[in-house]
Design a protein that fits this description.
The chain has about 425 residues and is an alpha+beta fold. The longest helix has about 45 residues. α9 packs across α10. It contains 10 helices and 17 strands. The protein has 3 domains: about 290 residues, Nucleotidyltransferase, domain 5 (2-Layer Sandwich); about 50 residues; about 70 residues. It is about 35% helix and about 20% strand. It has a 5-stranded mixed sheet, covered by helices on one side. It has a 5-stranded mixed sheet with strand order 11-10-9-12-13, with no helix packed on it. It has a 4-stranded antiparallel sheet with strand order 14-15-17-16, with helices on one face. The radius of gyration is 41 Å and the shape is elongated.
């Protein structure tokens, strides 16, 4: 996949084709294979393009959706969020959390519609159409949230009410984006006195839910991450130890989430969304460490099946060879004069025919036997040919005094008895059954 994010988070794409993007590529969705910064036209080509929106471009709102039809859901969001937003709802783009639907309490993401469409058009014009839109930060939910879809909104897998903090550089300014149970917040990191307590303590307290029953002190289980370029300054200001996460790795984390803000008027077709889900599921199954036991189990199952099929084929081949050897031995034992065996059944039929001819007995291919077979198959009907041509083992009969239906019935009766009967026009070619 190709993951892109505007290098200038705050600017609208007025620069058009010259706008710069930070990008990262991954062949399996688990490791970064390349990254850089360039204009849209110079981005690597990929069928799966993910656009990551910066934290400050998206606002988050917790709402209880009424039970309405899907077609009226957007209008319901306008009414629910009209009093919470400073901008006109008609100028904003909304998206629900993964698995969110009417009748549930869900997180709703909101961003400027014109700003978002501008970046999408820049990438579309550069032949890099976006297939999915992911946020750089999103609200978290408890692992045991009642009614929550398993895995939805839980990319960081936190089992206690804690927060995820990310220090990053935006246009030369260090920002701290924080995601918790109460939503997402962004604050500039400046070296200013904070009074009692550190800046980190104030950030954690602001994002912790009121009267939390989580074990430990507030912030004890928080995750602190930072881009290497700003980690030292963020640690000095916030007096907090940060784990280094480069921007390409952060973009990959965003792409690995279940979030897709391409909804409502920006949504893809049902088939395209289904194809995206299938590709993400297959990529995750193929490469994610959590699926390694399943992959080993599947490989073992396929290996057992291949070994079993080969063993069964070897057994069948051995049985067939034994039967062929038995037929050859029967031929050579019955007719010792046959020293070279090429086709045992055919050679045995010929030897039997020679014995019958030497003894004066009728064989299956004699004319008398063919005529007797026709008479028996006629079942009393006067079906007699006026022209007979005989060659060793085959008779041709024509000039019938019978209707076409009678001749077809005669052919079917002969074939059911094992004879090889074939009509060529009104001529019947009859041969004895194969041994």
């Amino acid at each position: 996949m190709l993951i892109v994010a505007p290098s200038d988070f705050s600017a609208a794409p007025a620069a058009g084709p010259t706008a710069l993007f930070d990008w990262a590529t991954s062949s399996n969705g688990q490791q970064i294979t390349g990254h850089g910064q360039c204009a849209a036209s110079l981005l690597p080509r990929d069928d799966d393009v993910v656009l990551v929106l910066p934290p400050r471009s998206v606002s988050w709102h917790r709402v209880s959706l009424p039970k309405v039809a899907q077609a009226r859901l957007r209008a319901a969001l306008d009414g629910l969020l009209e009093d919470r937003l400073l901008a006109d709802t008609a100028d904003l783009h909304f998206a629900l959390e993964p698995g969110g639907r009417s009748g549930q309490t869900v997180w709703v993401a909101a961003c400027d519609r014109v700003w978002l469409r501008g970046w999408l058009q820049v990438l579309e014009s550069a032949s890099r159409p976006v297939g999915r839109i992911a946020p750089a930060l999103w609200p978290l939910v408890p692992a045991e949230a009642p009614g929550a879809t398993p895995g939805a909104s839980r990319s960081f897998g936190l089992d206690v009410p804690s927060n995820v903090h990310w220090a990053y550089n935006e246009n030369g300014q260090i920002w701290l984006g924080s995601a918790g149970l109460l939503g997402v917040s962004c604050a500039p990191v400046r070296e200013t006195p904070m009074g009692n307590g550190t800046a980190a303590d104030m950030v954690v307290t602001a994002l912790m839910p009121p009267a939390s029953d989580a074990p430990g002190a507030p912030g004890e289980f928080d995750v602190w991450l930072a881009d290497p370029s700003v980690a030292q300054q963020a640690e000095q200001v916030l007096q907090q130890r940060f784990e280094l996460v480069a921007q390409p790795a952060w973009l990959l984390r965003c792409a690995q989430s279940d979030w897709n803000l391409a909804q409502f008027d920006l949504s893809l077709s049902a088939g395209a969304r289904r194809g995206q889900r299938l590709k993400r599921s297959f990529r995750q199954w193929r490469n994610a460490p959590a699926w390694r036991p399943a992959r080993w189990g599947f490989a073992a199952l396929v290996g057992v099946q291949l070994v079993g099929l080969n063993a069964a084929a070897w057994h069948e081949r051995s049985t067939l060879n034994d039967k062929q050897q038995a037929i050859v031995q029967t031929l050579q034992k019955s007719f010792p004069q046959v020293t070279v065996v090429l086709d045992a059944p055919v050679q045995m039929q010929r030897e039997v025919a020679r014995l019958q001819a030497a003894s004066g007995a009728l064989s299956a291919g004699d004319l008398e036997t063919l005529l007797a077979a026709i008479d028996q198959a006629a079942a009393g009907d006067a079906l007699t040919p006026s022209v007979i041509a005989y060659n060793t083992g085959e008779g041709r009969f024509s000039g019938w005094r019978a209707s076409e239906e009678q001749l077809r019935a005669l052919q079917q009766t002969l074939e059911q008895s094992g004879w090889r009967a074939r009509f060529d026009g009104s001529e019947l070619a009859l041969r004895p059954p194969e041994l």
